[in-house]
Amino acid sequence: MSKLFRAVIMGPPGSGKGTISERIAHNFGLKHLSSGDFVRENISSKTDAGVLAKTYINKGLLVPDHVMTRLLLPRLEEMTKYSWLLDGFPRTLAQAEALNSSCDLDVAINLNIPLETLKERLRHRWIHPPSGRVYNMCFNPPRIQGLDDITGEALIQQEDDRPEALVARLRHYKDVAKPVIDFYKAKGILYTFSDTETDRIWPNINTLLSTKIPAIQSDARCASTR
Ligand SMILES: Nc1ncnc2c1ncn2[C@@H]1O[C@H](COP(=O)(O)OP(=O)(O)OP(=O)(O)O)[C@@H](O)[C@H]1O
Ligand SMILES: Nc1nc2c(ncn2[C@H]2C[C@H](O)[C@@H](COP(=O)(O)OP(=O)(O)O)O2)c(=O)[nH]1
């Protein structure tokens, strides 16, 4: 039996993690696991971790590491039969270490996008909160302005995507992400992609994964943490 594939995708808000993850999931048949979606699911089903997470998100803060790992690692344990791509986790070195102790990663994708590009993109980002679907009024607009393509429900702009909140958010990302990037670099699995356009980055990611995925399909690598 060949091996399963495990990857994480990192990058500042607006760098295209969600957009690229969808393309990877579609092309390579991986599960796209989004930490933001897990958090939102836990908030709507009012789990203990979800109730706690909400108090931080309401203040515009990251969810603390121990809450995040408690929420996420059990979900990964349910995925031992699947290849997956994890989007939005880890965001801190403590999270990267927790993940490392429960499974081996093959690839860490790091998106390096100029600040001005990020600001411009997030100004135009609209989301459908129940599903996590993301639109950009220029890059991938909804079919009907202001409405989700699938449900027809209203789209919203997140408070922290507004220009005033963005610069501080991006600065904070840089500080926290640097040790995570160094961690994966030291492991020899870091692949950084720099450009202003997702459509120019995507072929390079596609080529990289084409060389990795057929070689490693199937064989569970996430150890149970229990
Ligand atoms: N790994 C994590 N560590 C801490 N908090 C997290 C993590 N992942 C998600 N969260 C919390 O959940 C919220 C929603 O996450 P999500 O990734 O959907 O959106 P985001 O912060 O707008 O990120 P991005 O703009 O990069 O897509 C975050 O703002 C944060 O409070
Ligand atoms: N103009 C432009 N917009 C882009 C490009 N790639 C992604 N976008 C849009 C889609 C979203 O509205 C926004 C952020 O993308 P995202 O995939 O949600 O990023 P992330 O926050 O998950 O990292 O930018 C791109 O290459 N050009």
From TrEMBL:
SUPFAM superfamilies: Microbial and mitochondrial ADK, insert 'zinc finger' domain, P-loop containing nucleoside triphosphate hydrolases. Keywords: Acetylation, ATP-binding, GTP-binding, Kinase, Mitochondrion, Nucleotide-binding, Transferase. It is an enzyme of class 2 (transferase). Residues 34-63 are annotated as: NMPbind. It is found in: Mitochondrion matrix. It comes from the Eukaryota. GO terms for molecular function: AMP kinase activity; ATP binding; GTP binding; nucleoside diphosphate kinase activity; nucleoside triphosphate adenylate kinase activity. One of its GO terms (cellular component) is mitochondrial matrix. The keyword Mitochondrion applies. GO terms for biological process: ADP biosynthetic process; AMP metabolic process; ATP metabolic process; GTP metabolic process; nucleoside triphosphate biosynthetic process. Residues 125-160 form the Adenylate kinase active site lid domain. PROSITE patterns: ADENYLATE_KINASE. It catalyses: dCMP + ATP = dCDP + ADP; dAMP + ATP = dADP + ADP; dCDP + ATP = dCTP + ADP; UDP + ATP = UTP + ADP. A ribonucleoside 5'-triphosphate binds at G14, S15, G16, K17, G18, T19, R125, V134, Y135, T198. Its EC number is 2.7.4.10, 2.7.4.6. Consists of three domains, a large central CORE domain and two small peripheral domains, NMPbind and LID, which undergo movements during catalysis. The LID domain closes over the site of phosphoryl transfer upon GTP/ATP binding. Assembling and dissambling the active center during each catalytic cycle provides an effective means to prevent GTP/ATP hydrolysis. HAMAP family: Adenylate_kinase_Adk, Adenylate_kinase_AK3, Adenylate_kinase_AK4. PANTHER family: NUCLEOTIDE KINASE. Belongs to the adenylate kinase family. AK3 subfamily. Involved in maintaining the homeostasis of cellular nucleotides by catalyzing the interconversion of nucleoside phosphates. Efficiently phosphorylates AMP and dAMP using ATP as phosphate donor, but phosphorylates only AMP when using GTP as phosphate donor. Also displays broad nucleoside diphosphate kinase activity. Broad-specificity mitochondrial nucleoside phosphate kinase involved in cellular nucleotide homeostasis by catalyzing nucleoside-phosphate interconversions. Similar to other adenylate kinases, preferentially catalyzes the phosphorylation of the nucleoside monophosphate AMP with ATP as phosphate donor to produce ADP. Phosphorylates only AMP when using GTP as phosphate donor. In vitro, can also catalyze the phosphorylation of CMP, dAMP and dCMP and use GTP as an alternate phosphate donor. Monomer. This is Adenylate kinase 4, mitochondrial.
